[in-house]
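Entry type: protein chain
Record version: 2
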Amino acid sequence: MEKLLVSSNLPALEKPQRSARIVSMNILIHDVPGNPFGNCAADFEIVNAADVSAVPCQGCFQCWTKNAGFCVYADAFQHSGAAAGKSENIVIVSRLCYGGYSPAVKRFLDRGISDCSPFLTFRKGRTYHISRYKVKKHLSVYFYGECSDFERETAEEYVAHHAVNMDAETHTVQFVERFEDFGEIRL
């Protein structure tokens, strides 16, 4: 498989740290087999959600109440909330499934619920959780796979609400039928 080029002018990453100091980073979450994003490892923490063994969120809320920002399950997604919460640029490449993310990507995002606090606020006339990490976020979502017009509309609305929920300043959504058709992903 040909490697996909992700273009950016971003500095090298610092790994997330468990402290009050927020270290901004960038994360690329995908479900594409293999390592098609190897060329952007210097700019992004890359998470292949399909290639890891991680349990789904159990809804215990320990990440909100006991271990703020960190899941109690010690697996590949234990720090997903902190990783997504501390990221300025969040790029998601996912197969379109019923107007939303693939199960693997959704599992990562569900386990990352700790990127927000259990407290609520109003944004754009709706109730949302307050962000735990005060980082200005930009969400870019790339869906691949065949879809109907209804699925496309549903996905666009879903991502728009996801962006508001994660307190992202901007978001973009792009669709292609095959992953290989993306060519170059720009931030």
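Comment: The first strand starts at residue 5 and ends at 7.
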